[in-house]
Amino acid sequence: MKMLGRTLLTLSLLGAMATGVQANDKVLRVYNWSDYIAPDTVKKFEDETGIQVTYDVFDSNETLEARLLAGKSGYDLVVPSNSFLAKQVKAGVYQTLDKSKLPNWKNLNPVLLKNASASDPDNAHAFPYMWGSIGIGFNPEKVKEVLGANAPTNSWDLLFKPENAEKLKACGISFLDSPTEMIPAALHYLGYPVNDQDKAHIAEAEALFMKIRPSVSYFHSSKYISDLANGNICVAVGYSGDVLQAKARALEAGDKVKIDYSIPKEGAGSFYDMVAIPRDAANVENAYLFMNFLMRPDVIADITNNIGYSNANAAATPLVDEAIRNDPGSYPSQEVMATLYAIPDMPIGVQRVMTRGWTKVKLGK
Length: 365
Ligand code: SPD
Description:
This protein is α/β, with parallel strands linked by helices. Helices cover 45% and strands 15% of the residues. It has helices spanning 2-19, 41-49, 61-70, 82-90, 110-116, 140-147, 157-160, 162-168, 179-189, 199-212, 224-229, 240-253, 284-294, 297-307, 322-325, 334-337, 348-363; strands at 27-33, 52-58, 77-78, 126-138, 173-175, 218-219, 235-239, 260-262, 269-276, 310-311, 341-342. The strands form two sheets. Strands 4, 5, 6, 7, 8, 9, 10 and 11 form an eight-stranded mixed β-sheet that branches. A three-stranded parallel β-sheet has the order 2-1-3. Helix 9 (179-189) packs across helix 10 and helix 10 (199-212) runs parallel beside helix 17. The model is unreliable at 1-21 (pLDDT under 50). Spermidine is lined by residues 33-36, 61, 81, 83, 181, 239, 242, 271, 273, 343.
């Protein structure tokens, strides 16, 4: 029995090598950001294709990168941001895309493809899924109670001025737990380039956080959605669409919590999240099928309508709810767009310096 099992295994391995089949035909493992897909997207794909999807989530590029660089992540499709993509492409983490397997590529917005190609020439390894900004989510009533009617909710002063943060502590403040996004925000506020690699300037940015650290409730990159919605905190530095989700949840709950999103007038970080296939993916053909599915206008418009982020699919725009298309948080005006900066792609050594400093900020010492 054992011998027969081993023979069959050997034969099937030889067969797989001969035909180039890489793994089980009917499975796919996807690793995406949390709160970043419609509730029925995966089920629709499974029903249409018969492929079983294992869908896991992360909430920071740092987490995804650690999995990818360790190798053998086990995933067939992942969603890094453009600021991390360039380095990862150079490190050989991703497969070069065979675009003949992606007939829906034609639906993608050529302007956004061009922007994203700054991190991946010719969009050779990834396509843009959603994009957004990193701004301030806030509860206008609570902020007004604490800081008065002239609270600077349209400025980073709201949080970076210690006298404001000290007062807002009473209703709760959170920041993203991401040194590569939060330190550039502080550098920008201090008047330095967002991609400044000068260690003294990075230390100044950390010192700015240290000053307000006693007023910060927590650093986390996804918990603020529910906390804003249920009134546990009143200000969160967060991702545009996530704040819009908090706003929608608060509305749905029908309670009195109202949430707004502001892109501070000094400017804010912007990002593209990109879909890519890791070099060692086991189910490559299924990854292509899922990519092509995500490029379908009906599928991606439905995702945007559920998560509030703008997608990168031009053909999907007419299918996006008008309320989202007209929301300046999701689709900022040209004037506001001009104030956004791209989250910088930092060399690994600088990233390490930032991560060490950030650990101190979080510990408050
Ligand atoms: N909940 C989904 C959040 C997606 C945010 N991606 C942002 C990356 C910024 N560099």
